[in-house]
Task: inverse folding
């Protein structure tokens, strides 16, 4: 079966999930620990936190059930389709420019290189999936209401219709929340936040996509293409075209809390963590740039050489 996801992190997690729980557990985690006041925790605190994290990871590994398949069955499209123009049927120059904009904060041409690699990867993946589905092999799509993943679902359904592929298509939609073994309720923003040990738990949610659903998604994507808005978002459960300033109120709300000089990266982190909007740090950095250009914010210190541009300091004017 061909497995389809719509982000780089989900792709990596899916491939790891195929063999999660097999063999002995090997601890391989890296953590960053900070105290609420920003001070560095002591070595004793760090060791205790590390032991706790390793024990949790061990239990998760031992309770995992391998998803099955192999890495060659997993395919990822990391195209950020909720952002920028979408007139192209397949990834091309237009999508490249959007990805370059999202990766613009990264220095030394790293953003452009990453964007080019993502377009090349998506092109190769699309060709490979095309070959397999034309033989009638089944496809399973893992998606959620995160904007890029829902856009990916609609786009891929439109692609399938253009291929006239005979393949059955199965869907697994990520629930809005899940309850862990400890009773805690966890909200996940997309498949990239699902650990490899958890993927098998969602298989009972799989259902085959009826032809009417596939046609409906493809038709909706054509409507969105005609509108060709700067952004697409999920409002009241529906994928819709929206203006580029949709998320500005959330950024401005956090800016209003600042009383002096502040780190742009910290601001972006608060918006991402607090509001769970399903958007990228690159888009937030892009919008903050517009605030700087309009005079709403002033740059007080540029990022150090070799660091992303949003490592600079700002203040309100």
Result:
């Amino acid at each position: 079966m061909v497995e389809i996801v719509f982000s780089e992190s989900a792709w990596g997690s899916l491939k790891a999930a195929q063999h999660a729980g097999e063999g002995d557990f090997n601890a391989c985690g890296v953590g960053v620990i900070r105290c609420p006041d920003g001070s560095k925790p002591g070595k004793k605190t760090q060791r205790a936190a590390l032991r706790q994290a390793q024990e949790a990871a061990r239990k998760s590994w031992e309770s995992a059930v391998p998803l099955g398949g192999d890495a060659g069955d997993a395919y990822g499209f990391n195209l950020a389709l909720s952002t920028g123009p979408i007139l192209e049927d397949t990834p091309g120059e237009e999508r490249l420019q959007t990805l370059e904009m999202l990766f613009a904060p990264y220095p030394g041409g790293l953003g452009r290189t990453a964007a080019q690699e993502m377009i090349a990867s998506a092109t190769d993946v699309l060709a490979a999936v095309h070959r397999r589905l034309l033989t009638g092999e089944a496809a399973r799509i893992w998606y959620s209401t995160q904007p890029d993943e829902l856009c990916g679902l609609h786009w891929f359904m439109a692609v399938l219709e253009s291929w006239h592929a005979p393949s059955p298509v199965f869907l697994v939609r990520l629930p809005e929340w899940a309850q862990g073994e400890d009773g805690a309720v966890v909200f996940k923003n997309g498949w990239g936040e699902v650990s490899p040990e958890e993927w098998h738990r969602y298989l009972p949610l799989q259902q085959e996509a009826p032809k009417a659903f596939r046609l409906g998604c493809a038709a909706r994507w054509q409507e969105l293409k005609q509108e060709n808005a700067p952004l697409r978002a999920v409002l009241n459960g529906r994928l819709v075209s929206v203006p580029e300033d949709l998320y500005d109120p959330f950024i401005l709300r956090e800016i209003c809390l600042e009383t002096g000089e502040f780190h742009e990266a910290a601001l972006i982190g608060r918006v991402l963590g607090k509001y769970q909007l399903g958007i990228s740090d690159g888009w937030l950095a892009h919008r903050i740039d517009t605030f700087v250009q309009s005079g709403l914010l002033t740059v007080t210190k540029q990022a150090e050489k070799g660091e992303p541009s949003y490592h600079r300091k700002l203040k309100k004017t």
